[in-house]
Each structure stands twice: as structure tokens, then as C-alpha cells.
Specification:
The chain is of the alpha+beta class and 347 residues long. It contains 9 helices and 20 strands. The longest helix has 19 residues. The chain is globular, with a radius of gyration of 20 Å.
Length: 347
């Protein structure tokens, strides 16, 4: 059986449906339950989310997870006037929740480590391109440069004693490039707290595996082809870890024959034009996986590989370059399969 068909079957059996970032329509919540299985599908953080749990407390775990997703979504929406992030962007200085503080602090750290390839203060430029409202436009270089001078997450001031965060006058932040990974990590903790040792979470294509399947085998996660949403470039067998992908295909628009995607390079204020089509990050830490999938995409292949070699104990990766060549880090070679050739990157 061809890999494409195999992985589609596996993913449907695990998640019910395939779900990817960028979905904009709300779907009715669905629940199914047996004595040892529970699942639900919800819409939050601008994407479809599928939760599945196994065990005697499966339904409680799924219900608790749903409540947590809704709570976190309320905190971090950049467009909801009642959210903490929206309020912080307006007021520039305010006391925030522990979760929001933790995310901002983590984002600043990773921005510094990556020489600003990842920066949550890029939001005004994301707005300029029209991605939050889907009112797309190609801004002039002058417009971009005017806003780009305010992009620098290291200027965000954090008072850990008071939980007060202060932004520069013309600065706005967005946690969209990190929030779903943090959320999946929180849900994993909820599952385990409720006694669930087997489950899987898909947050708009971000997959978090809880333990293994009930038969002890690993969860098979398909890695989507950047050129064809109906096919996969390979499959990774996950166990108790997050598998998160960023790619130019997730959200984009076309203007005068050119495609503009949503992953903005903080150095240029324009969609990243490096040599990668997609980056998949695998680690025990969902927040890290989400952050690095964007970061390494902006870095480009060579810098991404160098970064992995320096931090190989923290994560593994699957890269697809502009020529559709697939590269995987050596730490996952025993659990990755593909119908096509791929290159194993060694330390």
C-alpha cells in the first residue's frame, strides 16, 4: 500500500479527521464516547482541534481539556477585545496572568537564541499584510520599514514579581506562533492528571501524543506534503511528544501571480524567502516545538541544521527544502518512514 493511502487511513482512525491551521469556519462540536474512549472536536485559536483520550477517565480528560482550551484562547487572541494580549497591545503596560507571562518570557529567550529569527513583536507587520483580517495586501517597502523599527522583543519589559509587562509605545505582540504548542502541552498535563495514559491531540495540525496507543504501539503522524494537502511526504511514529509543522502552504494569498505566505521574516518584514517549504519539530515540549517550527523555517536549511546540531538533545526535525528534498535528524531515523528518499542529518 502506498504511503499516502496508509497515512491518511492512520490519521483518520486516530483523529477522526485531518485538521490543519488556517481554518476559518466554525464547526459544531462533536462528541463520542464508549466506556474507555472519548473524543471531541472544537474550534478555537482560529483552527479546528481534535481531542481523543482512552481509559476510564477519558471523558473527564476531554472535557477538562476543552475548558482549558477555551480559557487560554480567551487570554491570547490578538483580535478579541477582551483578551489579555489585545488589552496589553492597547494599554502597553499591565499585569497579566502567569501563563501569558511564561509564554512572553519563553518567546524572548528563543528570539535571543535564534538571532531574532522568531519575534512575537512582528504583529504590526503581520497586520500590515492583512493576515489577521484576511484583507490581504502587499505593502510598500516604506510602510514595512516604518513599522520594522519597532520590532524587537528584547525591548519587552517583564517584572516577574508583579507580573507586569511593558511594551514600547508603538509595539504590539502576538502569541499565535507559540500558543497552540503551549496549549497542547497543557492538555497533555491535564490528561495525565486525570489518569489518562493514552491519547492524541490535534490542534490545527499540531499533534501531541499522550503515551502510546492502547496496544503499546506508537501513534503514526503523517507529515503533509507542502505541495499537496492530500498527500504526505512521510510518517513519524510518536510517543509522548509533540509533532508540530510550519509551512508556507498553511496561510497565503496571491497577488499579480506571486504567492505571499504568512511566515514573516523579522529581518525583512516580508514573507520568508529562504530555501525551506516546511519544518516539522519533534520534542517533549510542545511550546518548544511550536516556536522552533517557525524559527527554523525563517532561518533556512543551513542555519536550521546548525541550530539543531547545537541543540540536538532538545528536539528533532524534518525539513523539506525548495527542491522537495527531505532531511531528518538522526534522532528519529528509527521511527520515520517515507516512500521517497530522505537524508539523515548527523551531529
Amino acid at each position: 500500500m502506498k504511503l499516502k493511502k496508509l497515512i491518511c487511513i492512520v490519521m483518520i482512525s486516530v483523529l477522526g479527521v485531518l485538521s490543519f491551521a488556517g481554518c476559518a469556519k466554525k464547526q459544531d462540536e462533536k462528541k463520542t464516547e464508549t466506556s474507555s474512549e472519548a473524543s471531541t472536536q472544537v474550534f478555537a485559536m482560529d483552527t479546528y482541534m481534535n481531542l481523543k483520550a482512552y481509559g476510564k477517565n477519558a471523558q473527564k480528560a476531554v472535557d477538562d481539556a476543552k475548558s482549558e482550551i477555551e480559557r487560554l484562547d480567551q487570554l491570547w487572541s490578538a483580535v478579541d477585545k477582551n483578551s489579555e494580549i489585545y488589552q496589553l497591545n492597547q494599554k502597553k503596560k499591565m499585569k497579566i496572568s502567569d501563563e501569558t507571562l511564561e509564554l512572553i518570557e519563553f518567546a524572548k529567550k528563543k528570539s535571543k537564541e535564534s538571532n531574532d529569527a522568531f519575534d512575537i513583536s512582528i504583529y504590526p507587520i503581520v497586520e500590515l499584510w492583512g493576515f489577521p483580517t484576511q484583507k490581504y495586501r502587499v505593502p510598500s517597502d516604506r510602510e514595512i520599514q516604518k513599522l520594522l523599527k519597532n520590532v524587537n522583543s528584547q525591548k519587552i519589559k517583564i517584572n516577574k514579581k508583579t507580573n507586569v509587562v511593558t511594551l514600547e509605545k508603538n509595539m504590539k505582540i502576538d502569541l499565535g506562533g507559540i500558543a497552540k504548542g503551549y496549549t497542547s502541552q497543557r492538555i497533555a498535563k491535564i490528561y495525565k492528571k486525570d489518569g489518562v495514559k493514552s491519547g492524541v491531540i490535534s490542534l490545527g495540525g499540531n499533534v501531541q501524543a499522550i503515551g502510546t496507543k492502547t496496544d503499546g504501539s506508537r501513534w503514526k503522524v503523517g507529515v503533509q506534503s507542502p505541495d499537496d494537502t492530500e498527500s504526505m511526504i512521510g510518517a513519524y511514529e510518536a510517543a509522548d511528544e509533540a509533532v508540530i509543522t510550519s509551512g508556507a502552504y498553511e496561510r497565503y494569498f496571491e497577488k499579480d501571480g506571486k504567492t505571499y505566505h504568512h511566515i514573516i521574516d523579522p529581518a525583512t518584514g516580508k514573507p520568508s524567502e529562504k530555501d525551506l517549504k516546511s519544518v516539522t519539530i519533534i520534542s517533549k515540549n510542545g511550546t518548544l516545538s511550536d516556536t522552533l517550527s517557525t524559527t527554523l523555517f525563517v532561518m533556512g536549511k543551513d542555519k536550521a541544521i546548525s541550530y539543531w546540531k547545537e541543540h540536538s538533545k532538545e528536539f528533532n526535525m524534518i525539513l523539506v527544502d525548495e527542491n522537495n528534498k527531505v532531511y531528518i535528524s538522526q534522532g528519529i531515523k528509527d521511527h520515520f518512514s517515507s516512500d521517497s528518499d530522505f537524508t539523515v542529518i548527523k551531529k
